[in-house]
Amino acid sequence: MQDTASVRPQLVESLYVEALALSDEVRAVFDLSGLEASDEKSYDPFRVALSCEALRATTRMMHAVAWLLNQRAYMRGELSALQMHRLGKLTRLSGRDPERIAQLPLHLREMIEATETFYRHLQRFEEQWSESDAMVAAPVTAMQERLAEVFAVAS
């Protein structure tokens, strides 16, 4: 069985490719250029729902791609542990609006669900990796503290 250190880069690369593909699908599905501008200044609940959910899905995928790019950079040594700690966290995004989503056609609702599912997967990986990294760091921190005590007593 492969250890986490060797599986993680492969997983991040795979997720990155998947995120790019899903982002492209989101862009295509929510392409609003085909909608003609309405001459009326009236409130159109469908257009509002479509615009809001397109923005949410796009934002969700932008955050996912950014997180994966940070993971890649960290694994390549392009980001330090401190930079990763500061910059490498997934943003907690606002929840869905069921009333708006209900106004959209099925294929759009399915795309929204796909982006939410993908993002939840990344959140679970982030939690698991944070716990795993903390367990690895704990013995090192304990050793550093013991060395500091020894050298403090010796001086």
Automatic annotation (TrEMBL):
InterPro entries: AraC-like_sf, DUF1465. It comes from the Bacteria. Pfam families: DUF1465. This is DUF1465 domain-containing protein. It comes from Blastomonas marina.
